Amino acid sequence: MSIQLIQKYYAEVDKIIRYGGSRNESSLRKPFQDLLEGYARVKNLALVAEVELESKRGTRIRPDGVLKDALRQDWGFWESKDEKDKIEDEIKAKFNKGYPSFNILFEDTHTAILYQAGERVMESAFSDAKALDALISLWVGYEPKEVSEFHKAIELFSAEVGGLAEVLRAVISEQLSVNSEFSGALSEFLELAKKAINPKIEMADVREMIIQHVLTEDIFMRVFDEAEFHRENVIAHKLAEVAGTFYKGETKRNIHAKIAPYYETINARASQISDHHEKQKFLKALYESFYKAYNPKAADRLGIVYTPDEIVRFMIESADHLTFKHFGRTLGDKGVEILDPATGTGTFITELIEYLPPAQLEYKYDHELHCNEVSILPYYIANLNIEYTYKQKTGKFNEFENICFVDTLDNMGFEHTGKQLNFFGLTDANSERIAKQNSKPIMLVIGNPPYSAWQENFNNQNANRQYPEIDKRIKETYIKQGTAQSQIALYDMYTRFLRWASDRVDKNGIIAFVSNNSFLDSRAYDGFRKVVAKEFNEIYIVNLKGNARTSGERRRQESGNVFDDEIKVGVAIYFLVRKEGQKGCRIFYNEIEDYTTSQNKRAFLRESRLSELNFATLHPDSKSNWLNTTSNDWDELMSMGGEQKAIFDLYSNGVKTQRDEWAYDFSKSALAERIRFFVDIYQKTLQDENFNGKLKIKWDADLENYRKRKLDISFDENRIVESFYRPFVKTYLYFDKRLNGRTYQNIPIFADGNAENVVIAVNGRNGSQWTTFVSNKIVDLNALYGGAQCFPLYRYSESGERVENVTDWALGQFKRKYEGRIQNSEKKAKTKNSEFTRSVHNSELTKLDIFHYVYAVLHHPAYRAKYEINLKREFPRIPFYDGFWKWADWGKRLMELHLGYEAVEAYALERVERRGAVPAPDDGVAQITGRGDPAPTCRLIARKDKGEIEIDTQTTLRGVPAEAWEYRLGTYSALEWILERYKEKKPKDPTIAEKFNTYRFAEYKEQVIELLCRVCTVSVETMKIIKEMPE
Questions:
Q1: Do residues 931 and 831 share a domain?
Q2: Mean pLDDT value across residues 557-564
């Protein structure tokens, strides 16, 4: 599998011995363990050291390592022996003790021996790299029958669970009408839930709680299989009691019969786990798998991805260190109240129980450990985990009374009153617990809050709910102090939890969170950074990177996500310290090295201590930037827009349709057909809100609002206009305020979509690769990375009057700066009769000249380099360069090239046609042309090193000059934008895929080839102009 890994192992062993080490087990075990872990990673397995297991003989065993998958299943075992021991004697002794023989590797640093299915299958000397590679590969590649059956059971259970949930929903609906005991208890619980959990909770939510319990109770109870525990745990007892009011007799037999085979397999594996740490990990993995299958929408909304143990332990140890450093107290001391506001399955609290000294644990457990959870199933599991962990450590059961079933973000100190209920174990005792928690001065808020700023697909009916009180606090603080145009990200769930925790933590206290790291450098978070630096005195940040939404080299630098790539955002662990009487705020920053893998990030956390890390001290600049601060003349330059005094009066985002696959098409007729269908479905839904075809179209909040207001929508062919979907990629757009999610200011810019105008489009703030282009058509928001911001030459009033959009103030500034110079330079230029002078019609500086000047400056490489960081954060600012007319002329020439790209002379690329057999498409089905030859398959691949573009399996363009690739607009060159957008792709929208997937590249092939040749000319000429600019 990897001879390179073995060679690395040899080098490490040689190094240990050369520096005085020995060949005994303790010295050489770690390098071999690293070697095995390298092989395991390739198979998506993990090597877990020294886990206690129960053998089939009932004996307790502890292998040196166990191969485990994501569901904590055992794939194999590793035993390391000292060279002084006789390996054959050790093998015999281990098997006599009950060690499994289905896949176990024995080694003594000289010889490796592998047993599989009870048989000795291979032996290798450590010195034989090829044989050792084969043996380890065989070991990690072996899938035991029990593991295969378990995964099959999980897979089938996950597939079945949706249907079973539907059956239970129907049963519950029926029982509500015939079972008064059940319906009464359910109604009482709903009222309690509205007070304690979420005021907007509905009966449907309560029903889901019962369904989750019924479908998972047997599995979760089997993992924790002590009868005493079941009797004494109030949650386990009461949940079973309530379910028993309807889930019995034939109903229970019918449903249980369908899931019994899966339960038996899952339970069989669960019963083999004796180590309570492994029980918790198994339960969390099982819960994740179940919940994502049962309710994927809620799993996405609630962030059902649980925190790796390395993160939890690092955060607890670090919080303990900071609590002692700043307040002279440890986490175990009395008076240090600890709260996890989003506990999930109780990971942080169980780890705290493990971490705290035994002498301090009982008091802390009874009085000062607190946690909240809003979803019934993780709440239930958290109870089991916490109480079981406590019992394992202390030897006695003790109910954990400090877990609250509540939505933390709604818990802003509200009062809880009501009937004395006794339902689900969530009686008024739950309200009392919340009130008790609210009365405590919390010193440490610790946890992993969910993070999901907004949801793109409204059809999922899964948007994050609003929290009026906490959102008001965000508006009063972070947003009020911020300067970004769009601050929607500040309503991300993790920001809400940070706002809540900042208000909740005591005057001497700490917040310890792991979350999205966007707050570090996002422009939208400038107000947040300013506020937390006022509200806290010290901030410690460990940036683990891992942002999968970057690209190119930056993406490689971000590397793996510490959550095993289960999430796509970058991650940071941070500690906010508030100390009464201390003034100012010091910010300490540590970031993991670029290119660090997820496994190595977790290893870093496992091996590091906060007190030993090298922190850089951050010094925020005047705009509350913490990273990549700047020191230049940026603030002295003229703003393009967004300020009272700016070059442009009006500017706008590009159009955001929120349903691109519906709203755009290369074909006008295809687009018309699609929109007619869309409008028809909408109108039918308008007449009947229960119309079963409603979800055949793409809904968003605005369209749903139009439906509720009974607003008609009709198709109008005149609304089909030309637009730029991407640079140099012109498509048709159905431009309609009701069918485009956000038109922003594009109506004042382009009126009905056909009005004459020109816009300079630039990256939105936060665009990682800054660029610009010009358009005389409507521009899509995502035409540029970070969101295209458009600055028009004109704007149109409501009456249709065209008004110049370059401000009079800007014209005055330019005239004051250049008018005298213009007259003098014109006289000099005329005496030379220069070509440049002939391009200048008169010396009267106009707003159009300023427009050209701006476009030239935005292309200047030295400008982009000097202000690189500023351009990522703010709208461009424009300097006054010497030689105004030269710059205006460059801008004019660039603009004529870019607007007139379809009319420039085509570059003479060589067209090479391949004759003979053509490979079949990816689906393996060859299409036959009229000549009997297979139709060519679309490729559209750039081979820059060869100067080639492969159009399809028949045609290639050659002779693309190197400078053509240099003209880049963000991620791609101009040529690559065309290649990217004209490829054949399967639509994501299911209705589009089924009914309107009509795009075939072959119909546009000749048009695209001509376009590529012309844009090649544009690219070459653009680079010529740019290279004329001063360095």
A1: no
A2: 85
For residue 509, what are the β-bridge partners?
578
Instruction: Copy the structure tokens of residue 527.
Output: 């107000």
> Nearest-CA neighbor of 111 among 98, 126, 94?
126
Q: Which helix (H) or strand (E) holds 14?
A: helix 3-18
Cα 487 from Cα 479, distance rounded (Å): 7
CA distance 415 to 435: 7
**Overall domain count for the chain:** 5
Q: Which tokens hold the place of 564?
A: 């095993």
Please, are residues 570 and 559 in contact by the beta-carbon 8 Å criterion? no
CA dist., res. 55 & res. 379, Å (int)? 32
Half-sphere exposure of 826 (CA within 13 A, CB side): 16
Q: Is there a contact between 974 and 727 (Cβ–Cβ < 8 Å)? A: yes
Work out the angle at residue 1021's Cα, subtended by the Cα atoms of residues 1020 and 1023, and round it to the nearest 5 degrees. 70
Tell me if 341 sits within 8 A of 497, measured CB to CB: yes
SS3 string, 306-342, reads CCCHHHHHHHHHHHHHHHHHHHCCCCCCCCCEEEECC
With 60 as the cut, is the pLDDT of residue 928 above it?
A: no
Closest Cα to residue 389, out of 224, 220, 213, 219?
A: 224
Backbone angles phi, psi at 101, to 5 degrees: -115, 10
Nearest-angstrom CA–CA distance, 751 and 756: 9
Neighbouring CB atoms inside 10 A of 128's CB total 13
Q: Is residue 1020 part of a domain?
A: yes
CA distance 525 to 445: 21
Q: Is the pLDDT of residue 340 over 80?
A: yes
Residue 929, CB-side half-sphere exposure with 13 Å CA sphere: 12
CATH number of residue 51's parent domain:
3.90.1570
What's the predicted TM-score (pTM) here? 0.69
Output the six-digit token pair for 23. Answer: 């060949």
> Residue 944 CB: number of other CB atoms within 10 A?
14
- The DSSP result for 20-65, as a single string, is T--SSHHHHHHHHHHHHHHHHHHTT-EEEES--EE-TTS-EE--SE
pLDDT in tens, 432-482: 888 899 999 999 999 999 875 444 344 444 455 678 999 999 999 999 999
How crowded is the C-beta side of 336, counted as CA atoms within 13 Å? 23
Domain span holding position 819: 813-899
Q: How far apart are CA 572 and CA 543, in angstroms?
A: 4
Q: Which of 127, 143, 159 is the last residue of a domain?
A: 143
The answer to whether residues 725 and 580 belong to one domain is no
Instruction: Show the beta-strand stretches assigned E in 875-966.
Output: 877-878, 910-913, 938-943, 948-952, 955-958
Alpha helices in 68-179 (DSSP H): 87-97, 129-140, 145-178
Is residue 462 located within the same domain as residue 589? yes
Number of neighbours of residue 442 by Cβ within 10 angstroms: 22
118-132, 552-566, 689-703: range with lowest mean pLDDT: 552-566
How far apart CA 569 and CA 567 sit, in angstroms, is 6
SS3 assignment, position 67: strand
- Cα–Cα distance measured from residue 545 to residue 592, given in angstroms and rounded to the nearest whole number: 7
385 vs 373: CA distance, rounded Å? 14
The upper half-sphere exposure of residue 332, i.e. CA atoms within 13 Å in the direction of its Cβ, equals: 12
User: Angle between the 129-140 and 3-18 helix axes, to the nearest 10 degrees?
Assistant: 120
Distance CA 82, CA 26 (A): 8
696 Rama sector, left if φ>0, alpha if ψ -120 to 50, beta otherwise: alpha
Through-space distance between the first and last CA atoms of the chain, rounded to whole angstroms:
51
Tokens of 684: 């039918």
Question: Which of 385, 383, 72, 375 shows the shortest CA–CA distance to 212?
Answer: 375
| Bridge partner residues of 958 (DSSP) | 910, 948
- Cβ neighbours, 10 Å, residue 549: 11
Considering the domain architecture, whether residues 827 and 927 belong to the same structural domain is answered as no
